Q: What sequence folds into this?
């Protein structure tokens, strides 16, 4: 019996058993296409179709959205998603493609939308039939999110007209819906914002233009989205007028891994079924990689470097675990607000270290048969910068921790 | 036994820690600590043992010294995670005492085959320390430079912690049958204590020479017992580093929130803010790993050895980093004898290599993860 | 000969560098470089060799390709420090060319005992590359996986730089008499080039297979010749890293001086400013060590080997650090294909392990400083 | 023939020969007292007397102040001090005790004082008969030097009355003179400062109080200096009134190692004659220190760590060398402004590494016979924080480099 299983309630134990048997029977197996390392790098509809089909089947089996209310299309349970996640990760399933929807849009909608809107939007979000994207960043508003300029102007018939330019919009080229932060009042920075859900796919060519941006890896992943007089109903607004910033904070809290609801998470499998960015994978790589007639794992300096990362990784794992023990935590946000910073920098260092293990092979890329794990480490290292930059750069994360947890004066 | 999600850190453990924090705050606030241990600043003065035996007597009275005596030997049955909380509180106060060493002795004795006399002494309120390191600072009983013959010890044990405070020593010595643990009364004949001059003003350390010193064998396989106890010893030391680290962090945060330069509190500047956040992250890492190692030990997990090495490898780095940044971010004032920061700086520098430094623990860890390097 | 205070970097050297900077700026400004090498972003596309042979023809015309041919063999007699300046300029431009490899071949030939045919080819304007690394990326002729018999080569050379651009290869191969350097015409029979898919878009690399390929022996002791040339090769590569690093630094400084967040240019924030200063310090370190190694080589100093390893050990770290901070400090825009930063990021990542990474060079250095580890 | 000697002019070669033969005959030998690692840690008059006698004899032999004009008590030469320094360091002489005088006061006086004042002050400064100290920092003015509050008020008879509180004043307890930055106008921050030379020893108890501060090492080294209505002649002012900041910049330039005049430098010898904070010394320590029956120098991980520092040290040495080759430098201040930051952080890392080489012995201190080099490394590590803090913390140095060399916007 696994560690995790030991503290399950009887209901949870039964659910875990359900997950296991369903996954054993329904794991989609080796994919027919090369899959990206994360959902935001999905490049083509072959990849998306495969992953959407997988999310739908997992949803239908009750493994996605288990802790959401039934009227929202969820399972109506408590603390079941964690179990489903553990089992999906354990089973090395593919990833769930609707990451922005599940991780950010859904909890924000659950916390701020009307019941009517919840019932309308959440079922197809959880099932992955509707892919969601997030319209926060703009050319002039990155880390300084509150300076967004995309403007929503009220119409005489109680609707809104949106004009503006969003960037770094992951998955927009597949998305049906967008959560968007817009300005409704130019005279107040933080108090002049509103927060909408916007159907973008249906408006393509009719007020919405999506232009893909190519990442330094050569992959697609995010987009520019332009709004040109897009008209939208007032019922799509989630905030009390002018309180959009507060709603956005809910989204960011979940984006930074500090929300109180488990985000459905699956995967660990990519095109190379065994590949994950973990120190364990570097250990394996070091054992398999030869240099000067000996495995790299026999080099004491490389052993030391890898163990340094192992200590960091173990620290992160047990810090996440400690977050659930109030008696062993200090400030309530001290651990939750670390998550995004720590994970992103850890993956960056780990992927870089793997490239060092590979030596001259470190710069071989996708498509080279001698590349490290098919080039996945090199790809992963480059993609890691997406994570140390997006959703508040590491620098901004350190400000947040210094200011909100340590109580240091604001740096701006 | 698998590890409980909450590290087995229950209400009793939390209560012990609050009690300890209150106790240390009350008995030895930092200004009194400074007056106690920093009364003589002469850099090359002869080493002294500055402590308050009456505080220790109270700690014994509270039952803290017997916390690693097994329940079936008369101990209290608290898990090691609870003890780690106590030691974290002591680390935060930097209160000089033989607590940690006495607990370490209890841990080693718990894996000895004839330890009853040792437990009895601890239960009676005696304090004790481990004596086994060699001249080069190898913390492994196999390298002990003490030998036993006919119930008498001869030789020298190095880097003995709190030797100036304890009543007895648990000494690893080589005999005809192998290396065993021996109990020696510190004030008995043939025991010579030379206090080392260490930077840490809140602890003491000595070189202990044995000349036909009377000894009672308590454990016939010293290496086995030490190896079994080691993860627990490392978990507690890591908890001490966390406590001292938190003191350094919070004291520095307070200072940079008040001290102004360029019309701003220092903490406004990211050049100050970001390093302090990094210190916080380092402390959190070590804290999680300390409690994880303690919990693994409590549960008898197969990965307990690994957890111990990970905890001290992290603690060694955190000790160094938290100390260095605290002085740097305090600027000139942090560099003075009158500022309390140096007490904790020095305590952390002492903890860094104690019971093995980061490189050593990572090498041990690599041997577990990769297997030993092929010859 | 002792090192001159000024590194032997005289007016001619400075003139060559300015000329080169002007040349590259003129012939291939960064927008044209991007159009040349980044026209196809498909991540798993088949490797291609994107370069402008007409620019290379001009470089040959300027005499740059013969700069490491000894003066008595028809070369120009410029010191290596001057060549380092040229390569620094090329690194800054990231212009794809076989210059560095051709110069490397000249350096190795300079320590070969029957190299005249090679020099003649280079003097005629031929480009060439070293082919000697093994499958695991050991850049040591002793581990070559090519063998010679009866004037024919068989086997495979890995990680051959600029193989897609050069005319000839200088191949280390094992023969009955030992390991020697052989000249092979790239377009001759029995030479198979498989381009590797590397991240660096500004260089090319290939796996080269020899099947009864005609070869002329130019140097009978490959290891000795390579060891003698190695510090010079490392100095030049370090200079390339410096040039690319400066481009990354200055481009990032410009960006953060303009880009505003929180009503301030990003460079106002110490969280941005201090890392960029650290990048500058890293570049300065590598630059000094590159020119020092070149100068040591020019002077035939006994510490030349050491200087070479120090230079590349530093360059490997600087390559990584300058690349990583440039992308991070650019934020989202630096992560896009359209931003030029990735061209240099990838070039630096390729340079990092090329001709040995930091750990490898530090191990070599330790062998010089401490002597080899006792077995 | 040494490397350095090769490029000497005939005059320089003759001078170098003079230095060598004089040092061979006049090296003061093993000192009778324990000496500190640097002049600012001089604790008692035994130490000071020994070192002052040494400076006086070196000065009399023409090895100190060689490049100062003759009317200032100097040798009137060009580029001789560098040679004298090289030879004194090579001969492992003791340090020169008047470091503040030689490194900061003298070049400032030379650049800003009247010829009369130069002739009056510099000979006894160069000879070490007068020890100098620097009154810049105050309780509220550390890194933000321009916020000094010590006030100089003009008197009716053209003198000045000084009141205020200076801190971190190295050597003040031995000093005859102080260079001091004071405020003469409260309405302008930078333009309201003046710069004086002040005789403090003669004023002790008559307007000047010196209180020693004890460092974390337990050593003395700096002081608080209180001014209570100290009257001082206007001829002691070095600035055009209100331009004291510009004069202070000269001092700081030299303090940060970026001046254009070689500061007389000697030593390398301390109480342990062989001790210096260099990577070479760590290499030696690693060879001599045993762990687990083998020298630490056989541990590949420690070898790698020590080589990392060797690379840094070599980089610093050759960067300093490169500073003299305009064709190989970029911005003229790029290298000069690095010096203080690089040296202080290098020494900090090197001393820390030595403690790691020592393992458990790293925390043994002065007076313990088993301590590493008599505890000098441990002492040196702690003292290294003095150097990463004083004269502008490392953080401030990075601002200066970022702003003055890279041209980044000011952080304040």
A:
């Amino acid at each position: 019996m696994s560690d995790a299983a030991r503290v399950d309630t009887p209901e949870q134990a039964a659910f875990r058993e359900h997950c296991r048997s369903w996954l054993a029977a329904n794991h989609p197996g080796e994919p027919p296409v090369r899959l990206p390392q994360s959902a935001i790098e999905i490049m083509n509809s072959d990849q998306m179709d495969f992953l959407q089909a997988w999310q739908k089947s997992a949803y239908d089996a009750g493994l996605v959205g288990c802790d959401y209310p039934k009227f929202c299309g969820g399972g109506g349970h408590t603390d079941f998603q964690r179990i489903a996640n553990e089992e999906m990760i354990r089973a090395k399933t593919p990833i769930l493609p609707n990451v922005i929807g599940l991780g950010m849009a859904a909890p924000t909608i659950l916390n701020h939308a009307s019941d009517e809107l919840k019932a309308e939007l959440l079922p197809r979000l959880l099932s992955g039939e509707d892919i969601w994207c997030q319209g926060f960043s703009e050319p002039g508003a990155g880390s300084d999110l509150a300076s967004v300029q995309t403007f929503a102007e009220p119409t005489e018939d109680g609707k809104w007209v949106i004009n503006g330019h969003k960037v770094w919009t992951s998955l927009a080229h597949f998305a049906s819906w967008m959560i968007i932060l817009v300005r409704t009042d130019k005279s107040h920075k933080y108090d002049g914002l509103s927060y909408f859900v916007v159907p973008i796919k249906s408006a393509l060519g009719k007020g919405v233009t999506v232009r893909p941006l190519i990442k330094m890896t050569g992959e697609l992943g995010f987009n520019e989205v332009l709004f040109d007089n897009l008209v939208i109903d007032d019922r799509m607004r989630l905030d009390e007028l002018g309180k959009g910033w507060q709603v956005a904070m809910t989204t960011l809290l979940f984006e930074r891994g500090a929300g109180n609801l488990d985000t459905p998470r699956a995967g660990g499998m990519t095109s190379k079924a065994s590949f994950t960015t973990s120190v364990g994978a570097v250990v394996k790589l070091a054992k398999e990689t030869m240099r000067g007639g000996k495995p790299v794992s026999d080099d004491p300096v490389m052993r030391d470097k890898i163990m340094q990362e192992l200590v960091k990784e173990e620290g992160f794992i047990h810090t996440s675990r400690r977050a659930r023990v109030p008696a062993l935590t200090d400030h309530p946000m001290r651990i939750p607000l670390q998550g995004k910073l720590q994970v992103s920098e850890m993956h960056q260092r780990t992927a870089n270290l793997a490239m060092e293990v590979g030596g001259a092979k470190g710069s071989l890329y996708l498509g080279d048969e001698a590349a490290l794990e098919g080039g996945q480490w090199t790809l992963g290292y480059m993609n890691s910068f997406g994570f140390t930059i997006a959703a508040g750069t590491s620098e901004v994360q350190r400000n947040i921790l210094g200011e909100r947890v340590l109580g240091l004066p604001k740096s701006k | 036994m698998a590890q409980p999600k909450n590290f087995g850190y229950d209400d009793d453990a939390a209560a012990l820690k609050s009690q300890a924090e209150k106790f240390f705050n009350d008995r030895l606030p930092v200004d009194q600590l400074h007056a106690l241990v920093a009364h003589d600043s002469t850099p090359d003065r002869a080493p002294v043992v500055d402590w308050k035996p009456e505080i220790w007597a109270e700690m014994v009275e509270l039952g803290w010294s017997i916390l690693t005596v097994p329940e079936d030997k008369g101990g209290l049955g608290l898990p090691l995670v609870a003890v780690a909380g106590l030691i974290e509180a002591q680390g935060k106060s930097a209160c000089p005492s033989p607590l940690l060493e006495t607990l370490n002795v209890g841990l080693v004795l718990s894996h000895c085959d004839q330890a009853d006399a040792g437990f009895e002494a601890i239960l009676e309120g005696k304090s004790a320390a481990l004596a086994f390191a060699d001249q080069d600072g190898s913390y492994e009983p196999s390298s002990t430079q003490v030998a036993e013959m006919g119930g008498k010890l001869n030789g020298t044990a190095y880097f003995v912690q709190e030797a100036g405070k304890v009543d007895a020593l648990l000494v690893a010595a080589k005999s005809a049958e192998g290396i065993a643990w021996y109990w020696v009364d510190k004030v008995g004949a043939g025991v010579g204590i030379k206090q080392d001059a260490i930077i840490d003003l809140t602890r003491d350390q000595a070189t202990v020479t044995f000349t036909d010193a009377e000894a009672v064998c308590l454990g016939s396989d010293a290496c086995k017992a030490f190896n079994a106890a080691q993860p627990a010893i490392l978990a507690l030391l890591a908890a001490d580093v966390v406590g001292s680290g938190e003191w350094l962090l919070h004291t520095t945060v307070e200072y940079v929130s008040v001290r102004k330069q360029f019309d701003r509190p220092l903490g406004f500047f990211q050049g100050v803010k970001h390093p302090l956040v990094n210190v916080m992250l380092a402390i959190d890492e070590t804290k999680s790993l300390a409690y994880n190692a303690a919990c693994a030990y409590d549960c008898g997990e197969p990965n307990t050895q690994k957890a111990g090495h990970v905890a001290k490898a992290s603690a060694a780095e955190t000790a160094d980093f938290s100390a260095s940044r605290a002085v740097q971010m305090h600027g000139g004032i942090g560099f003075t004898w009158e500022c309390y920061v140096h007490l904790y700086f020095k305590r952390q520098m002492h903890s860094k290599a104690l019971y093995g430094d980061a490189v050593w623990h990572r090498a041990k860890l690599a041997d577990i993860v990769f297997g030993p390097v092929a010859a």
In short: The longest helix of chain A spans residues 300-322.
